[in-house]
Amino acid sequence: MPSLKEIKGRIASVNSTRKITSAMKMVASSKLHHAQQMIENMLPYENMLERILRSFLASEADAHTVFSEVRPVKHVAFVVYSSNSSLCGGFNANVTKMLHAAVEEFSALGKENILVYPVGRKIAEQVQKMGLKSAGDFTELADKPNVAQCIDIARELGEKFLKGEIDRIELIYHHFKSAGSQILQRKTFLPIDVNEVIGQDNDRDLSHKTVTPEMQEYLRKNAKEEEKKKKVESKPLNDNFIVEPDMDTVLKTLIPKLAHLMLYTALLDSNASEHAARMVAMQTATDNADELLRVLNLQYNKSRQQAITNELLDIVGGSVNN
Description:
This protein is of the alpha/beta class. It has helices at residues 4-59, 91-105, 121-130, 139-143, 147-163, 194-197, 213-221, 223-230, 247-321, and strands at 76-81, 114-119, 133-134, 168-178, 181-190.
């Protein structure tokens, strides 16, 4: 049985750890709020772009462009989003696991024909361990989302796709649904299916940054209502509406903008998901520390009471002998 001094030292150690986890939870909560605001600032542009594309696609029977051309896959690229730091639960481990599965799926191509754009230090380290070809260093982008750099990556990928250097491009990231729910997704970036991409991720809950049983129950009850809201039918353009210079030119301009938005949206979702995962992990660690402190304090009090009882028995026994 541990001594009172050992138990007291362990209580002090757990208390120190609890202070750290509690502080990290507060920092993650603040960063999550900032990440949610960035998503909210992006949503008006996303909604307007999707609304325009829905209207054009409802009028245009065939929205085929060079970016939607499906061809045999000989070269594949992955844009994978992770974090630069750890202590966020299984956030990075799940991304790594999905990347392994994706690479295994295209293993027949050979590692020399698989290119990875690692956004985040954790996934960059895994790419190096797996012996895959990396397209560059994007660690700074994971901490500081930058729309300009996302557009540069999207343009580079688009050029390689048009030149035939890459036949398929996929995104692997966490879709931020709410503070308590982040869904790991593997989405095709190119060739792009506009009808499939538009509106599929408009299910975020950005009004909360806490995780409680009541919130989880609320999300479950409102899941069906959210699905109904997503299925909004598009009305075709008015026949008198004149498109200049022509429909194909407008679509060729809008679809690349949608591709740029996909990369930036995935980055914002991954960033918010990282902070939410870290907040939940630190909250769990703090709760575990509280439970451990309760057990240690109980053990300390029992040991102290037993020590006092033993001393009393010794005193009483000594007086009786005298």
